[in-house]
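Regression test case RT-17, inverse folding.

Input:
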């Protein structure tokens, strides 16, 4: 009975704390001039330090849903009918960018004799923090528009890399690993065929779109369909033992590609996500690391190395590939905006530590690096953007 009461009390404290942090973080962001995502991460860390946010199933589940919703919103930025590179020269630059990125990562992996976890972690992408930048600065910024396109490609590659790493660490490179990899490949092929089939279906029966999502919708069918599709694809990923992020992301791309007539839908979904679910995820990220980890010299040295490698290889690759296309200022902002793979870095560190591929200190170093670099880069981007484009920043 006492344990049940304690659990109820713990859940109540977590719920109240989350509610207060979500409510007050925009005010603190406005007062301190620090991006709201950074404020949420810091508040989560401080609240956990004082015992107000304890790790329990309720908190973890809500945070996971927030992360999946964030990836769903990222997918909604991609219309597959329009996605691509208008100029072949940009496509060539992008190929150079990724070749440089993975080439530099492999060089560091070999030179420092690192675990395979690092080889996957250094070039990994995640749209979580990038979506926060899109929310703050808008997609009209040339550096951010390109970062979003590159981030989408990079995240798809990263999901595949995560699946390969996860299968390799869990099963070894054997029959079970081949089955997992085959499941990922089969799903991607199936999804491409499904997209083509739906395109033909909507071409023959265009009224189906408005039947699913009417223009005049008093029953919120658009939101119901969107949420149902996201969770159905997430369930499919769980069954196939593929990273569930892929399901949420592809659900978003499906909505963006085939239901453009619902022009108000992205704003409705985004407002709910960034107003409630997504902040819970960022607060949870902040709560996962004890503040003492930021004072351990050994962990800080490793974290500095990891963060420097992630940022450095992107800066070098960006300057080689895009400085002639974006110009120096936009290229710097582009490279920094793509250097915050916070969510997937945490995922890789967790996989590596659970499989004994990295040590406990290395695990904390990855978490500290992802959090520290995310906070530092969000602030640095704000400062550089204000310096490079003072008129835009005042508007």
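Golden output:
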């Amino acid at each position: 009975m006492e344990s049940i009461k304690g659990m109820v009390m713990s859940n109540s404290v977590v719920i109240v704390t989350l509610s207060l942090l979500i409510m007050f973080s925009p005010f603190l962001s406005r007062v301190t001039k620090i991006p709201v995502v950074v404020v949420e991460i810091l508040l989560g860390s401080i609240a956990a330090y004082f015992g107000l946010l304890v790790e329990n199933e309720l908190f973890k589940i809500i945070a996971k849903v927030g992360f999946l919703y964030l990836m769903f919103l990222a997918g909604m930025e991609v219309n597959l009918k329009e996605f691509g590179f208008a100029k072949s020269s940009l496509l060539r630059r992008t190929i150079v960018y990724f070749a440089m990125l993975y080439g530099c990562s492999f060089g560091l992996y070999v030179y420092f004799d690192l675990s395979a976890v690092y080889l996957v972690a250094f070039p990994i992408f995640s749209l979580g923090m990038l979506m926060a930048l899109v929310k703050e600065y808008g997609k009209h910024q040339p550096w951010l528009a390109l970062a979003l396109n590159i981030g989408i490609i990079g995240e798809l590659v990263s999901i595949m890399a995560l699946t390969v790493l996860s299968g390799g660490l869990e099963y070894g490179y054997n029959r079970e690993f081949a089955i997992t990899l085959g499941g990922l490949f089969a799903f991607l092929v199936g999804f491409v065929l499904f997209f083509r089939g739906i395109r033909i279906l909507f071409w023959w029966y265009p009224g189906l779109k408005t039947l699913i999502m009417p223009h005049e919708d008093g029953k919120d069918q658009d939101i119901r369909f969107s949420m149902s599709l996201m969770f159905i694809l997430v369930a499919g990923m769980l069954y196939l033992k593929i990273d569930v992020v892929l399901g949420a992301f592809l659900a978003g791309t499906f909505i963006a590609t085939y239901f453009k007539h619902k022009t108000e839908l992205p704003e409705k979904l985004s407002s709910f996500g960034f107003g409630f679910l997504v902040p819970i995820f960022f607060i949870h990220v902040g709560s996962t690391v004890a503040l003492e980890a930021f004072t351990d010299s050994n962990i800080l040295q490793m974290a500095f190395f990891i963060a420097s490698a992630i940022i450095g290889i992107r800066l070098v690759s960006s300057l080689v590939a895009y400085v002639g296309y974006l110009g120096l200022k936009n290229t710097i902002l582009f490279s920094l905006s793509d250097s915050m793979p916070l969510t997937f870095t945490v995922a890789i560190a967790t996989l590596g530590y659970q499989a004994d591929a990295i040590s406990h200190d290395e695990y904390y170093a990855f978490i500290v690096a992802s959090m520290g670099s995310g906070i530092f880069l969000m602030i640095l981007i704000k400062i550089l953007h204000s310096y490079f484009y003072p008129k835009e920043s005042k508007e």
